Amino acid sequence: MIDTFKSVIDALSAPTVSFTLLTVLTPLLFPPTDWFDKINRKLGIYKLWTKTGCFVGMAFITFFFIVGYFDPNFNITLTKPDNFPIVLMVYSMFFFIWLGMNKAYINDDRLDQGMKPLEYNDPDDKVLVWPDLVYIEFIALILFMVFLIVWSILVAAPLEEPANPAATPNPSKAPWYFLGLQEMLVYFDPWLAGIVFPMFIIFGMMAIPYMDINPKGEGYYSFKERRIGIFIFMYGWLILWIFLIVIGTFFRGPNWNFFGPFEYWDPHKVVPLNNVNLSEYFWVKMLNTGLPENIMLREFMGFVAVFAYMFIFPIILAKTWFKDLFEKIGPVRYTSLMLFGLTMFSLPIKMYLRWIFNLKYIIAIPEWFFNI
Amino acid sequence: MFNNDERYWDIQKLNKWFAISSILFLISMGWTFIDDNDDEFKVYQREFRKMEIEVSEKKLQQELEAVKAERVSYEEKLASAQSLLDTQNERLAELEETLQTLKARYYNENMIYQGQKAEVDGLKYLVEAENAHHDAHHGPSHKDDYAAAMDLLHEYKLIKEASEIEISKTEEEIMQIQADVKLRKDQLNVVLKDVNIVDNKLTKIDRERMTFANKVGDVVRDLPIIDFLDPYYKVHQVVVKDMKYDVNFAAVPKVDRCMSCHLGIDKPDFVDAPQPYTTHPNLDLYLTSASPHPMDNFGCTGCHAGRGRGTSFVSSTHTPSNAEEKARWQEEYDWEVMHHWLQPMLPTQYTEASCFKCHNNNLDLKGADKLNLGLSLVDKSGCNGCHLVQDFPQLSKVGPNLTKLDEKVSRDWVANWIKAPKKFRHNTKMPSVFGQDNQDSPEMQAWNDAEIVAMSSYLVSENGGKKSTSDHRFMGNAENGQHLFEAIGCMGCHVIEPDPVETETTLKDQTKRHGPNLVGVGSKTSAEWVYNWIKDPLLYNPESRMPNLRVSDEDAKDITAYIMSFTNEDFNAMPGVDLDENALNDVAFTHLSKQMPEAYAEKKLAEMDLDEKLHYVGKKSISHYGCFGCHTIDGFEKAKPIGTELTEWGSKPVGKLDFGLMHDVDHTNHAWFDAKLKNPRIFDRGKVSPPLDLLKMPNFDFNETEVEAITTAILAFNGNKVDEAIKAHNNVDEMAQEGSRLIKQYNCQGCHLIDDFGGQLVDQIGAAEYAPPNLNTQGAKANPKWLLGFFNDPSIIRPNLEVRMPSFHQITDEQWNAIIKYFQHLDNEKISYRDDLAFDKHSIEFKGGEMLHELGACNNCHFYGETFPKQDASTWAPNLAMTKDRLNPEWVKEWLRDPQTMMPGTKMPAPFLPTEDLLTVDGAENDWGKELVKMNGDTEAMLDGLRDYMWSIKGKTNIDKTIQDYFDEHGYDFGGDDEDDEDDDDWGDDDW
Question: With CB atoms counted within 10 Å of each terminal CB, which end of chain A scores lower, N or C?
Fold first, then answer.
């Protein structure tokens, strides 16, 4: 029974499967449109945001970790002091999302019934900084200090041997909060995954208040009033960041090979990765010729594809599906939204291209260290 | 203050939460302190404090017991002195009072004097300024003021000094009154010195002996936070600046805190205490400041390795020596491996590996038997033939030269030998390359057989070695051959052991097996070859280490007959190695396709005939298996060794060692070495590799002792460099170092005792007086010029020895010089060239010496040129006419003084030197001669005289012919164990 559970989890956690499942699940969890909402209601997924749902979710996570604790292979990764924050993160992510969604659903019901949201206080709708805000912040601060102190007493700092260029650890992992970035490096060139994307994440988040001019849902929890925004953010946050950290922590073993949580991290495991560039697909496989000497000619397909994705595609969207949106927020906001949004979605796109077509780079110019 | 209605939260509830969280915070802070103070080492230190009190109390009792009697009388004397002092109490009090007043007066006077002195200095400046700028000076002169001030100063000085005198007078008087008591006290303290030391210590550590204030202090000093000042329980550490811990980008000095728990390690009183309090087992050599390795300079991890900064059992990376210990530690200490510490402590059985980092200059290291054995095995097994070790390079190829194999053995023999050398000679040093556990598939066996046949045909021509094994032109009397083999020194390096003998591998045992075990020679080669080899080994192999024993033709034939009588019929009956031509083609093709595309390889293979294939595969296989690491082989003169460099292998991170698919080998470097040495192919288990990628280190069939010793040696080859300052033997001449290795290379210690090691041949011959001489003190003893001549052309020194010094013609003068330098180094002898000893034949000393020599009857045993000794051959001793060339005069004098001390067990008696009493009795002049009487028992003068006389002895120095003729006629009818008793009488020592 447990073994079946383990092998199912192992099979499910292969990045292709788990990523696809989660990608499908996200619009069902956070339905951006009525159609998804209907399925959500039909399948009863919304029940996850009730108190029972919280209990079941917590129980499942706990069950998973307990099974993992008693599994000789998962135990090694799970009990590493470095990975303690990840375990905390899994719990806290679930709890806070549940909390937000739970309150949002309650408010949505109230709003439907024409009532004010729960957070609505008195006509002035104000709270005092002192004592209402500062006091609870102070208490939280003290409790958090207690937590940090106890943690530092119980778990020794995971120090390792002096860095040795001749003997690097295998696998070499970034600090846990950068494991999502490290996972991106599997699919993108370092300058993109290491520099451009992190900057876009920061600037993108800074730009959110300027792009999202929907005044509803300010100061209270609500899902219905901004479901597309929540869906996009949740996909970027949960799947493209948190989940990648979980993958990097628990599922990446020696030689950066992928291992299910209950699999033995065998350093001898060899997985062939015969990846092919778009230019090679085009010239070698389709046209049966060699690669052209001229770099720009060689890579023109890639340039066309990237240009089309980033610059033509938004225009088409603006004329068709996003016509309303374009008209509502105007060209500047629309352009910014497309720039950040398309960049974000380029990650899952690239991942799928890799998994399905073994595509290495769309534009591959190693001569100039320019690969996309 | 606030109206609670305005608030969002219930403030009372928040207050409660605030209280709860504050209490939790307080608790967590408390916990921090408790956790921080609850160190493992403190537990040990508290325990040790109890033990120390116990030990000190016992010691105090002992010391008190020891001075019990003595003490009483001194205490009585003190008491009487004290009572005398008591009668003078009044006077003393008076004096003390006077002193007090005087001191007060003096204080004031001195103040006035010092103040005036400052005034004087100020005026002095003004006067000097006037003098320097007298043109520009306009104001009034200060010269008069200055003179007046000086006068006043002088006046004050006198006043002050008067008080000083009075004070010292009073003090003196007080001292005089108290002198007697003080003297008695001092005397008692001298008696009680040891008691007081222990007592002082006890009052410092035993709370029960402390005053109340000290008791409080003792508790307070170890309280949290305050304990940064001067705690009793604290981390003890040494910083070892000359030993570095390599953190890759920097090397930091070692910091060892081991003694925080190993508290008795440098205290001799804790030999029987349990760990971690036990005294170090060898304090003479380690830790104490008087030893060569004081703790402050070497620390602990310098030798033991490990994490010196650790202050708990686990964090200091203790490493268990075996599985039982590991299990016990896991039970008792929750022991686990600290993965991230790259140099865990060495298990105790390998600690000697650390000696090498300072003692790496090839001198035999006393007390490091295992390391010496390991290094010797590395040398003798030829490990450094394939594996470069920069600190321990190969001196010469350990296997025989194979360039003229045609003359020695047949092709079939070679093939069978390569295939299974141990079947021919059970304890051969030739390792097994084939028949190992990664080669057991039938395809692999066919492949290997093809390689073996090809190698044998590369090495030996088709008609090679096929000569008669019983050619009577070269074989004489085997019985006499056996006698010669046992007598003339062959057994210094060779054994003949037809069956395995259970022996422990020791360094000494190694010297016995320096050359091959000579079993089975009759089945291997021809009598002609053996005969010629004995006559002159260098003719066949100019690199051989086998010396020339200068045996006569007849003797050589006899020895040949004896050696040829050992055969190995089982090996002879073995079928030849079959050649599967398909396999040969496979091997050839695989090698070819590594060099060229397969299509070309196929074409090339098709063009080769069988001989060409054999030659090609033979050469490739020799190169693949690295046979040239140990053997000189035509065509491989410049081949590079095939093994991994081992120079720093001992510090290779364990993660870089390929454990293959083996899971039951411990994840430590020494376990890896151990497994590899026991079965070199073990890490191929479960792997799928093409034939040429299989592990190929041959199997040496090392036993447990050998594996442990070699593992120690490999661990010794590491990157833990130490500063030049603490390297041992830095002052040893490079030449002397080379000499020490040459002595190993040519196994001088197989026959001779050198540096207190070696001489196993003595055991074989039985009596030490008929065995090769003890070469201790050789450096001080022999004149280097003579020694070089002797090495190059040995002549008889000890005429009663049948065993003989062989001629090592392969050793060059340069190397002989190195060997002589090494001898000289051992005895700290600096002189290489000496003038002839100058002496005056008419001096009293010389004449006295002549007399002593006459009385001593040296000619009973010693030759004087060609003059035979008086006693029979069994007691014969060196020709004294040789002395002036051969020996150093300083040594001879010391030798004559006391031969037994210099060479325990020597048959040379000390000459009798008359003492003063004997020379002053009446008629002494008749017995001793007037010169000796005049010398009046002056030992130095008498020894000088005797030595000088020896330098005057004339005669032929090389009397080999005379001696040989004598023995040809009479034979050696003595020697061996059974005649020992008789010999003792022959010396006639009693007559002295």
Answer: N
Whether residues B28 and A170 touch (CB distance < 8 A) is answered with no
Contacting residues of A for B32, CB less than 8 Å apart: 149, 153
Q: Looking at residues A131-142, what average pLDDT do you find?
A: 90
Query: Rounded distance, CA B89 to CA A160, Å?
Result: 74
Whole-prediction pTM value? 0.83
Partner residue opposite B341 with nearest CB, options A143, A150, A161: A161
Q: Which residues have C-beta within 8 Å of that of residue B524, sequence separation ≥ 6?
A: B408, B409, B413, B424, B568
For residue B701, give how far its alpha carbon lies from the nearest alpha carbon of chain A (Å). Answer: 30
ipTM over 0.95: no
Would you call B14 and A131 a contact, using CB atoms and an 8 Å cutoff?
yes
Question: From CA B669, how far away is CA B849, in angstroms rounded?
Answer: 66
Q: B765-803 pLDDT, tens per residue?
A: 877 788 888 898 899 999 999 999 999 999 988 888 888
Higher pLDDT, B972 or B50: B50
Q: Is B690 on the interface with A (CB under 8 A)?
A: no
Distance CA B318, CA B307 (A): 8
With contact defined as beta carbons under 8 Å apart, do B836 and B929 qualify?
no
CA-nearest of B501, B502, B485 to B493 is B485
Query: What value does the mean pLDDT take over residues B931-953?
Result: 88
Question: Alpha-carbon distance B416 to B576, whole Å?
Answer: 6
Please list, in sequence order, all residues whose beta carbon lies within 8 angstroms of the beta carbon of residue A55, skipping any fewer than 6 positions away: none
Chain A nearest C-alpha distance from B231 (Å): 23
For residue A228, the tally of other CB atoms under 10 A from its CB is 14
pLDDT tens-digit map of B407-440: 889 888 999 999 999 999 998 999 999 999 899 8
Chain A CB within 8 Å of residue B656 CB: yes
CA of B31 to nearest chain A CA: how many angstroms apart? 8
Please, which residues 619-648 of chain B have a Cβ atom closer than 8 Å to chain A?
none
| pLDDT single digits (tens) B177-229 | 888 888 888 888 888 888 888 888 888 888 888 889 999 998 899 888 888 88
For B594-622, write each residue's pLDDT tens digit: 999 999 999 999 999 999 999 999 999 99
Per-residue model confidence as pLDDT tens digits over B846-859? 988 888 888 888 88
Q: Can you give the pLDDT at residue B980?
A: 40
Of A127, A146, A268, nearest to B661 by CB-CB distance is A268
Cβ contact, residue pair A131, B29, below 8 Å: no
Distance of alpha carbon B248 from the chain centroid: 29
Judge whether residue B982 has pLDDT over 70.
no
Cβ neighbourhood burial of B743 (10 Å; 0-12, 13-18, 19+): buried
Q: Are B249 and A163 in contact (CB < 8 Å)?
A: yes
Residue (of B485, B607, B616) closest to B557 by Cα position: B485
Chain B residues in contact with A134 by the CB 8 A cut-off are: none
CB pairs under 8 A between A and B: 70
pLDDT tens-digit readout, B301-352: 989 999 999 999 999 999 999 999 999 999 999 999 888 888 889 999 999 9
With an 8 Å Cβ cutoff, the interface of chain A facing chain B consists of 121, 127-128, 131-132, 135-136, 138-139, 142-143, 145-146, 149-150, 153, 159-167, 170, 268
Nearest to residue B396, comparing CAs of B813, B861, B810, B944?
Answer: B810
Q: In this complex, do B9 and A163 lie within 8 Å of one another by their Cβ atoms?
A: no
Establish how many alpha carbons lie within 13 A of residue B234's alpha carbon, considering only the half-sphere containing its beta carbon: 14
The gap from C-alpha A76 to its chain's centroid, in whole angstroms, comes to 25
H/E run at residue B433: none
Q: Which of B625, B619, B627, B611 is nearest to B595 (CA)?
A: B619
Q: Do A145 and B17 touch (CB under 8 A)?
A: no
Beta bridge partners of B245: B252
Q: Is A153 close to B31, i.e. CB distance below 8 A?
A: yes
